[in-house]
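Fold it.
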Amino acid sequence: MSRNSKKPLAVSLATATCALLGTTTASPVIAQEEPVWEFNTALLYYGESDNRVEDISLNVLAQRNFVDDRILTLGLTVDSLTGATPYGAIPFDGPQTFTTPSGLQVRTTPANEIPLDDTFFDTRYAVRGSWQQPLGRMNTFSAGLSFSGEFDYKHLGANFKISHDFNKRNSTVSLALAVARDDLDPEGGAPVPLSAMLDVGDLCNRIGDVDKDVVDIVAGITQVVNRNLLFQVNYSFSNSSGYLNDPYKIISLVDSISGDPLPRIPTPGIAGPSHQYLFESRPDERTKHSLYVQTKYYMNGKVLDASYRFMTGDWDIDSHTLDLRYRWPLSGGNYLEPHFRYYTQSHAEFYRPSIDWWISAPILCFRRLSPRRIRCHHRWPQVRLGNRIRQ
């Protein structure tokens, strides 16, 4: 094969598949057109039975290609979430009453039903932007910013990536860094971990706003196997620190013999929970490692995309994700893409569906007559508690 006949291999493969991988492989220098905008939109609907979580998500991606392989990418996501989500308490053969997250009302769950918070509603807006440009002939650099906001959550992040082509541009190695700061302002304030759910209006176990920091590092290699086949392997490291609890999740305090939730007597004249519940407690730091493998096969306009991810970490959560997509081109630049995804994971080392009374230490509060303040005394059991956590 002559030298000139090798050029279409990298060019056609990059056009057919590399853009779908989310990475751009520098192509040979050719005559470039004026900058143009390209737009991608997607509408996603997700729904669960029994009036559980319902999600409608709109994604808009805009990309402008400038001369000299410079690329500007802008994205917008709008999510609308409604429905009912579990409190985390166990079902019981009698009714259960809970104080709402605001601490200003109570809600009752009928007997033998999973306790659900049916006030669940949120709208999330997320914007992101990135700039990519070559550094020399064989290197590419990109940087980006991201922001998202919800009713009680704010995210601000930055990311950087550098990649290097070699082996006649058939191989690419990359290194990426992302940092983020998440601020959480839960309704009623974030509860102290392992503190008890209290009467309506009693917020002495709340600590207000909280935050967490996240650092992600990803190293990977992309390899052109032949004209139609592309292969990618990534290793990623992630560290999170700060407030990692779900401030709205609770755990039932149960009788160690019968397994039934322990009853609680509210203060006379004040509504409150019918049983004893503790707010969950997770460690304040988490480290994750993951290995990701992806391959794309081009078949006369059709693209088969298969990937597998294994994730583990110091919370002893192991997960496996298999993802398959098949892109079928239609007329007018449209396409149909069936998608199959399988996911499974183990539970965290500290996971408990409930907690026996003898290892609990509910929060004790009392009011001083002068000055009018609330003092809270905490006695913590040496355990970590939480509900199931998604990777």
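Residues 3-21 form the longest helix (19 residues).
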